Amino acid sequence: MNIESIEFIGSSPSLSACPRRELPEFAFIGRSNVGKSSLINMIAGRKGLAKVSSTPGKTRLINHFAVKMSPGAGDKKAGIRLADWYLVDLPGYGFARLSKVQRSQFEGMIRTYLEKRENLALTFVLIDARLEPQKIDLAFMEWLGDKEIPFVILFTKTDKLARNQLAVNILQYKKTLSASWAELPAMISTSAVTKEGRLQTLETIARVMAGG
Q1: Which domains does the chain have, with CATH numbers?
Q2: 41: left (phi over 0), alpha (psi -120 to 50) or beta
Q3: Could you say which residues of the chain have pLDDT below 70?
Q4: Which tens digits make up the pLDDT trace of 63-107?
Q5: Which among 46, 134, 15, 25 is positioned nearest to 89, based on CA atoms?
Q6: How many CA atoms within 13 Å lie on the side-chain side of 200?
Q7: Which residues of 51-89 are buried (b: 16+ CB within 10 A; e: fewer)?
Q8: CA-CA distance, 177 to 174, in Å (whole number)?
Q9: How crowded is the C-beta side of 19, counted as CA atoms within 13 Å?
Q10: 174 near 184, Cβ under 8 Å?
Q11: CA–CA distance, 212 with 202 (Å, rounded to integer)
Q12: How many CB atoms lie within 10 A of CB 3?
């Protein structure tokens, strides 16, 4: 399973400005220093697709990318294919250098998109695997649960941990979430360096699109 092509469609300052074409959308979001741009580039297989900066919080708009998947061995479709889905790069949350007004504006834009975008199929919440459970991440996922917005956790930067420490950190996250969640969200370990989790993430997208 692979991506045949991916094309930047545009950046939107609000839900109403988002593309009108109703492809299923898969959104990526996390704290502003979680490595989201690097991970998106890794999953897309395109260097420089999402802007990577040494300064966190550079994503300030809702960015849409149209994705075409490579046909499978049994796919006999011919000719030009339309895009299969949209990859959506959302602004990070919890960026301390923003003013209260700016944070409020970003929060409103993000939450309006997540709540009201009818063709949003799944949200990937990025979590830094090196850290213990953070209140801001837990609160955000609690909000997603309250709004019944389906999501999957992507643990990032796993290459920076020994495998046993990674297992300990993920177990700690599971125990923390279990205190308030009857059913835990799916979790995928990823690394923009080693490409761990790329296939699993794309397979998750394919299952959702297939209705699984």
Answers
A1: 3-69+81-207 (3.40.50.300)
A2: alpha
A3: 1, 51-59, 72-82, 95-99, 102, 212
A4: 999 999 887 644 444 444 567 999 999 988 876 566 677 677 778
A5: 25
A6: 14
A7: ebeeebbebbbbbbbbbbbeeeeeeeeeeeeebbbbbbb
A8: 5
A9: 20
A10: yes
A11: 13
A12: 18
Amino acid at 27: A
In terms of Cβ atoms closer than 10 Å to its own Cβ (0-12, 13-18, 19+), residue 136 is exposed
What's the number of CA atoms in the CB half-sphere (13 Å) around residue 101? Answer: 0
The phi, psi pair for 174, rounded to 5°, reads -60, -40
**pLDDT given at position 76:** 47
Q: Which of 72, 10, 68 is nearest to 44 (CA)?
A: 68
- 155 in helix, strand or coil? strand
